[in-house]
Fold this sequence. Notes:
This protein is an alpha+beta fold. Helix content is 46%, strand content 17%. It folds into three domains: 2-49; 65-133, 5' to 3' exonuclease, C-terminal subdomain (DNA polymerase, domain 1, Orthogonal Bundle), CATH 1.10.150.20; 139-261, Cytidine Deaminase, domain 2 (3-Layer(aba) Sandwich), CATH 3.40.140.10. The strands form two sheets. A five-stranded mixed beta sheet has the order 4-3-5-6-7, with helices on both faces. A two-stranded antiparallel ribbon has the order 1-2. Strand 1 and strand 2 form a beta hairpin. Helix 3 (66-74) packs across helix 4 (83-94) and helix 7 (115-135) packs antiparallel against helix 8.
Amino acid sequence: MRELRHDVNGSGLRLQFSLPLIFEDRAEIHARCDSIYVEQAHHRLRREEEHPRKQMEDHGSAVLTDRQLLAILLRSGISEPGAIEIAERLLERYGSLSSISRCTACELGRVKGIGATKAIQLVAAFGLASRLCKESVRKERIDSPERVFQLLGMEMRSLCKESLRVVLLDTRYHLMRVEEISKGTVNESIAHPRDIFQPVFTAAAFAFVLVHNHPSGDPAPSEADRRLTTRLAEASKLLQVQLLDHVIVGSPDNGRTPWFSFKQAGVL
Protein backbone atom coordinates (compact mmCIF):
# COMPACT_ATOMS: atom_id res chain seq x y z
CA MET A 1 0.00 0.00 0.00
CA ARG A 2 1.14 3.55 -0.71
CA GLU A 3 0.10 6.68 1.18
CA LEU A 4 -0.70 9.77 -0.90
CA ARG A 5 -1.57 13.36 -0.06
CA HIS A 6 -3.55 14.93 -2.92
CA ASP A 7 -4.68 18.51 -3.64
CA VAL A 8 -8.17 17.98 -5.20
CA ASN A 9 -8.34 19.78 -8.56
CA GLY A 10 -6.16 22.58 -7.24
CA SER A 11 -8.84 23.54 -4.72
CA GLY A 12 -6.54 23.58 -1.71
CA LEU A 13 -8.51 20.69 -0.18
CA ARG A 14 -6.04 17.94 0.69
CA LEU A 15 -7.08 14.31 0.92
CA GLN A 16 -4.98 11.45 2.26
CA PHE A 17 -5.42 7.98 0.75
CA SER A 18 -3.81 4.59 1.07
CA LEU A 19 -3.81 3.08 -2.41
CA PRO A 20 -2.59 -0.28 -3.75
CA LEU A 21 0.89 -0.33 -5.22
CA ILE A 22 -0.62 -1.26 -8.58
CA PHE A 23 -1.19 2.47 -9.19
CA GLU A 24 2.45 3.17 -10.19
CA ASP A 25 1.72 6.07 -12.54
CA ARG A 26 1.43 9.31 -10.53
CA ALA A 27 -1.02 10.89 -13.02
CA GLU A 28 -3.24 7.83 -12.70
CA ILE A 29 -3.15 8.13 -8.92
CA HIS A 30 -4.19 11.79 -8.99
CA ALA A 31 -6.97 11.07 -11.51
CA ARG A 32 -8.26 8.31 -9.24
CA CYS A 33 -8.26 10.68 -6.26
CA ASP A 34 -10.25 13.29 -8.20
CA SER A 35 -12.75 10.61 -9.23
CA ILE A 36 -13.18 9.42 -5.63
CA TYR A 37 -13.74 12.98 -4.42
CA VAL A 38 -16.35 13.74 -7.10
CA GLU A 39 -18.15 10.46 -6.40
CA GLN A 40 -18.25 11.23 -2.69
CA ALA A 41 -19.49 14.77 -3.34
CA HIS A 42 -22.31 13.50 -5.56
CA HIS A 43 -23.24 10.92 -2.93
CA ARG A 44 -23.32 13.62 -0.25
CA LEU A 45 -25.53 15.89 -2.37
CA ARG A 46 -27.87 12.97 -3.07
CA ARG A 47 -28.19 12.26 0.66
CA GLU A 48 -28.99 15.91 1.32
CA GLU A 49 -31.57 15.91 -1.48
CA GLU A 50 -33.23 12.86 0.04
CA HIS A 51 -33.67 14.67 3.36
CA PRO A 52 -35.80 17.68 2.38
CA ARG A 53 -37.12 18.21 5.90
CA LYS A 54 -33.60 18.92 7.13
CA GLN A 55 -33.00 21.30 4.22
CA MET A 56 -36.22 23.14 5.02
CA GLU A 57 -35.23 23.48 8.66
CA ASP A 58 -31.83 24.87 7.69
CA HIS A 59 -32.66 27.00 4.64
CA GLY A 60 -36.45 27.39 4.31
CA SER A 61 -38.86 26.12 1.66
CA ALA A 62 -37.59 28.38 -1.14
CA VAL A 63 -34.52 26.19 -1.74
CA LEU A 64 -36.54 22.99 -2.18
CA THR A 65 -37.64 21.54 -5.51
CA ASP A 66 -41.26 20.66 -6.29
CA ARG A 67 -40.37 17.00 -5.77
CA GLN A 68 -38.90 17.69 -2.32
CA LEU A 69 -41.90 19.73 -1.18
CA LEU A 70 -44.25 16.97 -2.32
CA ALA A 71 -42.09 14.42 -0.52
CA ILE A 72 -42.43 16.31 2.77
CA LEU A 73 -46.22 16.13 2.45
CA LEU A 74 -46.05 12.44 1.56
CA ARG A 75 -43.36 11.30 3.98
CA SER A 76 -45.06 10.42 7.27
CA GLY A 77 -46.15 6.82 7.61
CA ILE A 78 -45.77 5.63 4.02
CA SER A 79 -44.06 2.47 2.87
CA GLU A 80 -41.33 1.98 0.30
CA PRO A 81 -40.39 3.02 -2.38
CA GLY A 82 -40.29 6.17 -0.28
CA ALA A 83 -41.58 9.70 -0.44
CA ILE A 84 -39.00 11.02 -2.93
CA GLU A 85 -39.73 8.26 -5.44
CA ILE A 86 -43.51 8.70 -5.08
CA ALA A 87 -43.15 12.45 -5.58
CA GLU A 88 -41.12 11.75 -8.75
CA ARG A 89 -43.82 9.37 -9.93
CA LEU A 90 -46.52 12.00 -9.39
CA LEU A 91 -44.62 14.66 -11.34
CA GLU A 92 -43.83 12.24 -14.18
CA ARG A 93 -47.45 11.13 -14.39
CA TYR A 94 -49.10 14.55 -14.28
CA GLY A 95 -46.30 16.80 -15.53
CA SER A 96 -46.62 19.74 -13.12
CA LEU A 97 -47.92 20.88 -9.76
CA SER A 98 -50.77 22.63 -11.56
CA SER A 99 -51.90 19.35 -13.11
CA ILE A 100 -51.58 17.52 -9.79
CA SER A 101 -53.71 20.18 -8.13
CA ARG A 102 -56.54 19.36 -10.56
CA CYS A 103 -56.76 15.78 -9.31
CA THR A 104 -59.38 14.62 -6.88
CA ALA A 105 -58.47 12.67 -3.75
CA CYS A 106 -59.78 9.52 -5.44
CA GLU A 107 -57.46 10.00 -8.44
CA LEU A 108 -54.41 10.66 -6.29
CA GLY A 109 -55.27 7.75 -4.01
CA ARG A 110 -54.92 5.35 -6.93
CA VAL A 111 -51.24 6.25 -7.35
CA LYS A 112 -49.09 3.47 -5.89
CA GLY A 113 -47.75 4.38 -2.46
CA ILE A 114 -50.14 7.25 -1.68
CA GLY A 115 -53.47 5.91 -0.49
CA ALA A 116 -56.57 7.75 0.67
CA THR A 117 -55.09 9.60 3.66
CA LYS A 118 -52.11 11.06 1.78
CA ALA A 119 -54.34 11.95 -1.17
CA ILE A 120 -56.62 13.97 1.10
CA GLN A 121 -53.60 15.73 2.61
CA LEU A 122 -52.36 16.76 -0.84
CA VAL A 123 -55.78 18.06 -1.90
CA ALA A 124 -56.03 19.99 1.38
CA ALA A 125 -52.57 21.52 0.86
CA PHE A 126 -53.50 22.78 -2.61
CA GLY A 127 -56.78 24.08 -1.23
CA LEU A 128 -55.01 26.07 1.49
CA ALA A 129 -52.62 27.58 -1.07
CA SER A 130 -55.59 28.70 -3.17
CA ARG A 131 -57.30 30.30 -0.17
CA LEU A 132 -54.09 32.08 0.81
CA CYS A 133 -53.96 33.72 -2.62
CA LYS A 134 -57.55 34.94 -2.18
CA GLU A 135 -56.99 36.15 1.36
CA SER A 136 -54.14 38.45 0.37
CA VAL A 137 -56.30 40.52 -2.03
CA ARG A 138 -59.67 40.58 -0.29
CA LYS A 139 -59.04 44.02 1.24
CA GLU A 140 -57.30 45.54 -1.78
CA ARG A 141 -58.68 47.24 -4.89
CA ILE A 142 -59.42 44.66 -7.55
CA ASP A 143 -59.04 46.91 -10.55
CA SER A 144 -56.53 45.08 -12.72
CA PRO A 145 -56.21 41.63 -14.32
CA GLU A 146 -53.20 40.99 -12.08
CA ARG A 147 -55.41 41.37 -9.00
CA VAL A 148 -58.13 39.20 -10.53
CA PHE A 149 -55.59 36.49 -11.28
CA GLN A 150 -54.22 36.74 -7.75
CA LEU A 151 -57.74 36.28 -6.43
CA LEU A 152 -58.89 33.39 -8.63
CA GLY A 153 -56.00 32.28 -10.81
CA MET A 154 -54.60 29.46 -8.72
CA GLU A 155 -58.01 27.89 -8.19
CA MET A 156 -59.41 28.34 -11.67
CA ARG A 157 -56.37 27.28 -13.65
CA SER A 158 -56.51 23.92 -11.84
CA LEU A 159 -60.10 23.21 -12.96
CA CYS A 160 -60.70 20.47 -15.52
CA LYS A 161 -63.82 22.20 -16.91
CA GLU A 162 -64.54 25.78 -17.77
CA SER A 163 -66.17 27.85 -15.06
CA LEU A 164 -67.76 31.27 -15.58
CA ARG A 165 -67.80 33.59 -12.55
CA VAL A 166 -68.53 37.18 -11.65
CA VAL A 167 -66.40 39.14 -9.21
CA LEU A 168 -68.72 41.66 -7.53
CA LEU A 169 -67.17 44.96 -6.41
CA ASP A 170 -68.25 47.94 -4.33
CA THR A 171 -67.66 51.64 -5.11
CA ARG A 172 -64.02 51.36 -4.01
CA TYR A 173 -63.49 48.27 -6.17
CA HIS A 174 -63.18 46.12 -3.08
CA LEU A 175 -64.43 42.55 -3.20
CA MET A 176 -68.01 41.90 -2.17
CA ARG A 177 -68.13 38.27 -3.25
CA VAL A 178 -67.56 35.87 -6.14
CA GLU A 179 -70.40 33.91 -7.72
CA GLU A 180 -70.25 31.09 -10.23
CA ILE A 181 -72.64 31.49 -13.16
CA SER A 182 -72.10 28.26 -15.04
CA LYS A 183 -69.84 25.26 -15.60
CA GLY A 184 -68.84 23.66 -18.85
CA THR A 185 -67.93 25.23 -22.19
CA VAL A 186 -68.46 28.98 -22.05
CA ASN A 187 -70.72 30.03 -24.93
CA GLU A 188 -73.68 32.27 -25.47
CA SER A 189 -76.26 29.55 -24.90
CA ILE A 190 -75.28 28.89 -21.25
CA ALA A 191 -73.86 32.35 -20.46
CA HIS A 192 -76.82 34.57 -21.20
CA PRO A 193 -76.42 38.20 -20.05
CA ARG A 194 -79.45 37.95 -17.74
CA ASP A 195 -77.76 35.13 -15.81
CA ILE A 196 -74.62 37.24 -15.42
CA PHE A 197 -76.37 40.45 -14.38
CA GLN A 198 -78.73 38.79 -11.88
CA PRO A 199 -76.13 38.42 -9.06
CA VAL A 200 -74.80 41.91 -9.86
CA PHE A 201 -78.20 43.49 -9.11
CA THR A 202 -78.98 41.14 -6.22
CA ALA A 203 -75.79 42.25 -4.46
CA ALA A 204 -76.24 45.89 -5.51
CA ALA A 205 -72.69 45.82 -6.86
CA PHE A 206 -71.18 49.00 -8.28
CA ALA A 207 -69.01 47.09 -10.78
CA PHE A 208 -68.12 43.55 -11.73
CA VAL A 209 -65.45 41.54 -13.50
CA LEU A 210 -66.36 38.52 -15.59
CA VAL A 211 -63.86 35.67 -15.23
CA HIS A 212 -63.60 32.28 -16.84
CA ASN A 213 -60.84 29.73 -17.33
CA HIS A 214 -59.46 27.75 -20.25
CA PRO A 215 -58.51 24.25 -19.02
CA SER A 216 -56.09 23.94 -21.96
CA GLY A 217 -53.96 26.60 -20.29
CA ASP A 218 -54.07 28.92 -23.32
CA PRO A 219 -55.87 32.14 -22.28
CA ALA A 220 -56.36 33.38 -25.86
CA PRO A 221 -60.05 34.30 -26.37
CA SER A 222 -62.32 32.35 -28.69
CA GLU A 223 -64.87 33.94 -30.98
CA ALA A 224 -67.59 32.97 -28.49
CA ASP A 225 -65.63 34.79 -25.76
CA ARG A 226 -65.43 37.91 -27.91
CA ARG A 227 -69.13 37.85 -28.80
CA LEU A 228 -70.14 37.40 -25.17
CA THR A 229 -67.93 40.29 -24.07
CA THR A 230 -69.36 42.60 -26.72
CA ARG A 231 -72.94 41.77 -25.70
CA LEU A 232 -72.17 42.33 -22.03
CA ALA A 233 -70.48 45.66 -22.72
CA GLU A 234 -73.56 46.89 -24.60
CA ALA A 235 -75.95 45.62 -21.93
CA SER A 236 -73.94 47.13 -19.06
CA LYS A 237 -74.22 50.58 -20.62
CA LEU A 238 -77.99 50.27 -20.89
CA LEU A 239 -78.30 48.96 -17.34
CA GLN A 240 -75.84 51.55 -15.97
CA VAL A 241 -73.56 49.08 -14.23
CA GLN A 242 -69.81 48.94 -14.85
CA LEU A 243 -68.28 45.92 -16.55
CA LEU A 244 -64.72 46.53 -15.41
CA ASP A 245 -63.11 43.68 -17.34
CA HIS A 246 -63.47 40.18 -18.72
CA VAL A 247 -60.46 38.08 -17.72
CA ILE A 248 -59.61 34.64 -19.09
CA VAL A 249 -57.45 32.51 -16.80
CA GLY A 250 -54.81 30.21 -18.28
CA SER A 251 -51.43 28.91 -17.15
CA PRO A 252 -47.95 30.52 -17.38
CA ASP A 253 -46.48 27.88 -19.71
CA ASN A 254 -43.43 28.91 -21.77
CA GLY A 255 -43.25 32.24 -19.96
CA ARG A 256 -46.54 33.58 -21.32
CA THR A 257 -48.85 35.84 -19.32
CA PRO A 258 -51.32 33.45 -17.63
CA TRP A 259 -54.37 35.58 -18.35
CA PHE A 260 -56.05 37.57 -21.11
CA SER A 261 -57.72 40.87 -20.33
CA PHE A 262 -60.32 42.35 -22.70
CA LYS A 263 -59.74 45.71 -21.04
CA GLN A 264 -56.01 45.64 -21.69
CA ALA A 265 -56.73 44.50 -25.25
CA GLY A 266 -58.83 47.66 -25.77
CA VAL A 267 -62.16 45.87 -26.21
CA LEU A 268 -63.61 47.37 -23.01
